[in-house]
Amino acid sequence: MTARADRPASRRPAGLGPADPVGLGLWGVGRFGRFCLEQYAAMPQVRVLAVADVDPASAHAAGDPHGVPVVPFEDLLADPAVELVYLGAPPAAHQAMARRALLAGKHVLVEKPLALTAEGGRALVELAREQDRVLGVHHILRYDPLCRAVGHVLDQRLLGAPLHASFENLANDEVLPIEHWFWDKASSGGIFVEHGVHFFDLFAMWFGPGQVVAAQEVRRPGRPAIVDQVACTARFGAGVHAWHYHGFHQPERMDRQLLRIVCERGSIELSEWVPTEVVVDCVADAGTVAALEAVLPNARVSLVEAYAGEHRHTTGRHRALEVDGRYRVRADVGMAKWALYAEVIRALLADLVEAVLDPAHRPLVTDDDGLAALGMAVRAEALAAGHGWMGPTDAPPPRTR
């Protein structure tokens, strides 16, 4: 898909220039929406004008502390001062509400996923192009400083070519009671669609376009309506093999994640789902170590083993290498997880606002990126259901069709 060639110099209402904050309205301000509102309210690039929610109590809990009025969604859409709408409701509502906002002339930031189906997401992208509106998707990992730094390591081939990557998500379900919409695929789309899209998008940023080739799901013993574990195998770019696992079954205090990339001359490990720390383990020469220090923030280098003379010679993938040692490089973002989370949320919105102000600006994550991640997630859900049921051996598999 391509952008319209006849875009105007500005997408803003008459009388507003680049120095004027963009009017923002929010629809869907539950636990995460309130967190987003707190970040947006502190940004000089935007002015939060209204909040709306199907639950008035949630709307007031979000808006009142910031002096933001609570209005019906129809009034939010009708307000000409609201230029950009953030949609933070459950996934099943994304497509319909985004369509309404786009038809009302608003720019839209949709909480991931873009829609529940690839067809629905594609319809939104096409509508946004027709309306010449910015359509953003809340794939925040592209804005994480460590994820971007790792991208530079991979692009510069500092550890050679990437070969394999894995993501293990041991997530908590303490905030997801049995009746939560997360467990209902009709509302959430399933774990791959509701959550896995983040990591399909991140891997595509690092390695290139991806395709899911196999997937499985596990239903909770005694509660066959709940799928709490999924896994899939995918390929990205020029032959990077990947494995993703998501399990929502931990106490909140044991919520943890590990992402690992295997390259020709070492590996990269990132911890936390919004990564706060990275560890590189590699064999390298002094120049490569210096390049890693330059790319990775707050880098600390440890020499694990030094090589000299003939011991500098080694091979990998049947190619000769000259290395000075085995090194471990640790780097971090220099802030706590929730502070980082807030920073990437603000960075994504600031990038989207720049696209509103300047039609030539291409955001770091585009609507096409959101659509590609959604397509992978929908395929993974279909493959997982179609490959049968993994669960208690004394119970029959549920019907999937």
Notes on the protein architecture:
With 401 residues, this protein is of the alpha/beta class. The chain folds into two domains: 22-138, NAD(P)-binding Rossmann-like Domain (Rossmann fold); 143-339, Dihydrodipicolinate Reductase, domain 2. It has eleven helices and 16 strands. Strands 7-8-9-6-10-11-12-16-13 form a nine-stranded mixed beta sheet. The protein has a five-stranded parallel beta sheet with strand order 2-1-3-4-5, sandwiched between helices. Helix 6 (145-155) crosses helix 8. The longest helix is centred in the C-terminal third of the chain and has 21 residues, at 337-357. It is globular, with a radius of gyration of 23 Å.
Structural class determined from secondary elements: alpha/beta
Number of helices: 11
CATH topology of the largest domain: Dihydrodipicolinate Reductase, domain 2
CATH C-level of the largest domain: Alpha Beta
Largest sheet: 9 strands, mixed
Query: What number of structural domains do the residues give?
Result: 2
> For the largest beta sheet, what order do the strands appear in spatially?
7-8-9-6-10-11-12-16-13
